[in-house]
């Protein structure tokens, strides 16, 4: 069977939800600066769109933590491929992720970042698959809870493809 993509969340729905999250974050961080941490590569589309909707001062940094490689199942081994450039000391830090699945990546990342002295540390994810959780993670902002299906688009890949889709879709026709 050929590889195809079935739309799960439309471009319009994603845009609307990103605006709502931006508004909520702006209210919650009123009078403060929020330091966004983008988890590469998947989080980059979401972080850019979200940052544009936040009305309090924003600073940004990037980190790459990988546990999936080219497959559809987490290896369970989390590697830091690129660390942050700046210190988190005294900052109101908001991690921006594309998806939380088993929770392995984020529980590991939060453990590391908490030790770096942020004033606060919160988590925002575009997508969450709560029924897949292996490691507990506290999620402060969620775009959409989705079922247990492997999704692509809006930054998410399958073997590095489909990140550029403007909507969220499910890959069909793969093992
Ligand atoms: O909750 P988990 O089961 O740990 O899965 C979530 C992680 O998987 C994806 O990253 P991936 O390793 O695919 O890297 P990428 O963002 O560079 O595609 C996603 O961006 C999360 O970081
Ligand atoms: N692309 C992609 N990466 C993931 N990482 C964890 N779950 C997923 C998923 O459903 N799709």
From TrEMBL:
PANTHER family linked: HYPOXANTHINE PHOSPHORIBOSYLTRANSFERASE, HYPOXANTHINE-GUANINE PHOSPHORIBOSYLTRANSFERASE
Any one cellular-component term (Gene Ontology): cytosol
Enzyme Commission code: 2.4.2.8
Names of the cofactor(s): Mg(2+)
CDD domains listed in its UniProt record: PRTases_typeI
Keywords (A to Z) from UniProt: Cytoplasm, Glycosyltransferase, Magnesium, Metal-binding, Nucleotide-binding, Purine salvage, Transferase
Subcellular location: Cytoplasm
Protein name per its UniProtKB record: Hypoxanthine phosphoribosyltransferase
SUPFAM superfamilies: PRTase-like
Annotated source species: Lachnoclostridium phocaeense
Gene3D superfamilies xrefs: 3.40.50.2020
Catalyzed reactions: IMP + diphosphate = hypoxanthine + 5-phospho-alpha-D-ribose 1-diphosphate; GMP + diphosphate = guanine + 5-phospho-alpha-D-ribose 1-diphosphate
Superkingdom in the source lineage: Bacteria
Family: Belongs to the purine/pyrimidine phosphoribosyltransferase family.
Ranges for domain Phosphoribosyltransferase: 8-158
Pfam families reported for this sequence: Pribosyltran
An example molecular function term from Gene Ontology annotations: hypoxanthine phosphoribosyltransferase activity
Physiological role: Purine salvage pathway enzyme that catalyzes the transfer of the ribosyl-5-phosphate group from 5-phospho-alpha-D-ribose 1-diphosphate (PRPP) to the N9 position of the 6-oxopurines hypoxanthine and guanine to form the corresponding ribonucleotides IMP (inosine 5'-monophosphate) and GMP (guanosine 5'-monophosphate), with the release of PPi.
């Amino acid at each position: 069977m050929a590889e195809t993509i079935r739309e799960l969340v439309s471009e319009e729905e994603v845009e609307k939800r990103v605006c709502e999250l931006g508004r909520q974050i702006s209210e919650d961080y009123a009078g403060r600066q929020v330091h966004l941490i983008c988890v590469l590569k998947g989080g980059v589309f979401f972080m850019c769109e979200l940052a544009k909707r936040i009305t309090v001062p924003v600073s940004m940094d990037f980190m790459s933590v990988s546990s999936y490689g080219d497959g559809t199942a987490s290896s369970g081994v989390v590697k830091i491929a690129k660390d942050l450039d700046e210190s988190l000391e005294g900052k109101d830090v908001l991690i921006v992720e594309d998806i939380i699945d088993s929770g392995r990546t984020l529980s590991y990342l939060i453990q590391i970042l908490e030790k770096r002295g942020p004033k606060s540390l919160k988590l925002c994810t575009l997508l969450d698959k709560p029924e897949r959780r292996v490691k507990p993670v506290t999620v402060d902002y969620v775009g959409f809870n989705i079922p247990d299906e492997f999704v692509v688009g809006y930054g998410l890949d399958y073997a590095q493809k489909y990140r550029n889709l403007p909507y969220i879709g499910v890959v069909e026709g793969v093992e």
